[in-house]
């Protein structure tokens, strides 16, 4: 009997709520209840076939960036691979139209690139709930899961790892017993860790010890993963929940640069806060001051003035030069100012560097009007009575009746620094994008997500906007050798 592989892609929203997750070696849930748009329905996982599921979100930019690679892989294995895309949790991106309308529009544009059959979860989110895999804090998207003979045989995140795993699971040596052994071996390597609980208390992430006031630095061993806070936030007006605690800061696997920036930088995040994905509006920073940003006011990383900077070198794939930092103070004392002072003393005691916050002239990209005629004719929206819209056509985003700040938002998202560093600008050219156009009217513009920085810059120039390098005063965290 000829073996075949069916790849199933599910688009799943990010969730900060911990869930009981499916283990390798367990029976896989079915896809019953889904509406099939393209291709032959798969109601059960047949014996002798291997299925690969990829969890993501249809409205998630991370998934969109992977579509070409996934489609190319499916085309490369045409005849032995059948890709099936399953959209779930579509209520978030449905807008005002009927449920599933956005999916069908997406398929009309992208079916050839996807190279796959397509199905969509029901409104009750049956498949989404059945296939929820692990706490999403622990898994980047998309998340791949291999099912063979109805049994979960592997799960992971990388496409290269997926290729290797498919080969291994398809081998004659694979069995449910092997899947169970693999699961037990993987579980034995894990150190239990719940990000919503305090690090190293009650064996959470390691050894425990009772305390009332505690700070701790440990060398990162790579055994646990967790979100990395950008700054010590002022919690005024923020609802404190299982992930946000007054008087508590935890940074797991943080390079020294990140530790020092949290301790000495601003209490606001250093990136642009974009439009709300549901309402399409920018946040009201008067009502919600924690949505304000230090973008363009603070330089985005410490400046090193040390003889030997090797201690600050790091690679996200390695645990070298990375540390775990945990700070707990009584909630009544837990202001951002006090916690920064404690962390600054800890870093001085542990590492000894002299640190100052200075105002320096730092580079940035300014967006200005270069040709008023072009702006008036080609950029200013003719739909003055219409609301803002943002629609995608494959790789192209169409923004209509947008604001000038949307140009800066797109520049920062696709050509920025930190989490928005996609390698499209070298580190020495990265910096904040600042709107200096003075445009208050609505504008229309497009962005091809595959464009290089220079291609987008040339496109904006054709519309009358110039992007040029300049300098402006910014707050800078400066690290020096001990005196």
Task: Walk me through what this model shows.
- It is built from 10 helices and 17 strands.
- The chain is α/β, with parallel strands linked by helices and 483 residues long.
- It folds into 3 domains: 4-189, Glutaredoxin (3-Layer(aba) Sandwich); 214-352, no CATH class; 361-480, no CATH class.
- The strands form 4 sheets. Strands 2-5-4-1-3-6-7 form a 7-stranded mixed sheet, with helices on one face. Strands 10-17-12-15 form a 4-stranded mixed sheet.
- β4 (81-87), α2 (101-114) and β5 (116-120) form a beta-alpha-beta unit.
- α6 (256-264) packs across α7 (336-351).
- The longest helix is centred in the first third of the chain and has 16 residues, at 61-76.
- Mean pLDDT is 83; it is low at 12-19, 133-139 and 237-243.
Low-confidence stretches: 12-19, 133-139, 237-243
- Gyration radius (Cα, Å) is 25 Å
Q: CATH homologous superfamily of the largest domain?
A: Glutaredoxin
| Lateral strand order in the biggest sheet | 2-5-4-1-3-6-7
Q: What profile does the largest beta sheet have?
A: 7 strands, mixed
User: Total number of helical segments?
Assistant: 10
Q: Percent range for helical residues?
A: 10-25%
Q: How far apart, in Å, are the first and last alpha carbons? A: 74 Å
């Amino acid at each position: 009997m000829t073996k075949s592989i069916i790849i199933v892609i599910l688009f799943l929203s990010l969730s900060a709520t911990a869930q009981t997750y499916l283990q390798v070696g367990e029976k896989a849930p079915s896809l019953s209840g889904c509406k099939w748009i393209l291709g032959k329905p798969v109601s059960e996982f047949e014996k002798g076939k291997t299925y690969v599921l990829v969890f993501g979100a249809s409205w998630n930019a991370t998934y969109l960036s992977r579509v070409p690679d996934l489609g190319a892989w499916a085309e490369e294995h045409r005849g032995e691979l059948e890709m099936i895309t399953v959209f779930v949790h579509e209520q978030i991106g449905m807008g005002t139209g009927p449920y599933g309308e956005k999916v069908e529009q997406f398929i009309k544009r992208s079916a050839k690139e996807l190279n796959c059959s397509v199905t969509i979860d029901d409104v009750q989110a049956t498949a989404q709930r059945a296939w929820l895999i692990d706490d999403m804090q622990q898994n980047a998207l998309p998340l791949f899961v291999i099912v063979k003979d109805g049994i979960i045989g592997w799960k992971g995140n990388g496409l290269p790892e997926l290729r290797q795993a498919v080969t291994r699971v398809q081998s004659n040596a694979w069995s449910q017993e092997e899947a169970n052994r693999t699961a037990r071996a993987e579980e034995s390597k894990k150190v239990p860790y719940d990000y919503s609980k305090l690090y190293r208390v009650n064996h959470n992430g390691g050894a425990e010890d009772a305390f009332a006031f505690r700070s701790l630095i440990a060398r990162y061993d790579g055994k646990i993963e967790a979100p990395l806070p950008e700054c010590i936030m002022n919690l005024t007006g923020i609802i404190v929940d299982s992930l946000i605690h007054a008087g508590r800061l935890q940074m797991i696997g943080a390079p020294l640069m990140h530790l020092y920036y949290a301790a000495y930088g601003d209490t606001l995040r250093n990136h642009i806060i974009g439009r709300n994905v549901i309402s399409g509006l920018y946040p009201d920073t008067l009502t919600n001051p924690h949505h304000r940003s230090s973008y363009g006011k603070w330089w985005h990383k410490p400046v090193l003035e040390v003889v030997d900077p090797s201690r600050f070198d790091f690679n996200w794939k390695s645990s070298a030069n990375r540390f775990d930092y945990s700070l707990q103070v009584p909630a009544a004392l837990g202001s951002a100012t006090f916690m920064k002072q404690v962390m600054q003393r800890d870093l001085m005691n542990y590492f000894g560097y002299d640190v100052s916050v200075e105002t320096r002239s730092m580079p940035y990209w300014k967006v200005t009007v270069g040709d008023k005629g072009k702006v008036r004719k080609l950029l200013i929206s003719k739909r003055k009575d219409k609301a803002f819209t943002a629609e995608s056509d494959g790789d192209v985003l169409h923004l209509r009746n947008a604001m000038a700040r949307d140009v800066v938002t797109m520049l920062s998202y696709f050509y920025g620094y930190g989490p928005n560093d996609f390698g499209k600008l070298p580190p020495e050219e990265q910096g904040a994008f600042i709107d200096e156009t003075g445009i208050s009217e609505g504008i229309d513009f497009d962005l091809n997500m595959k464009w290089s920085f220079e291609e987008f810059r040339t496109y904006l120039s054709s519309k009358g906007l110039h992007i040029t390098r300049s300098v402006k005063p910014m707050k800078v965290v400066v690290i020096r050798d001990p005196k």
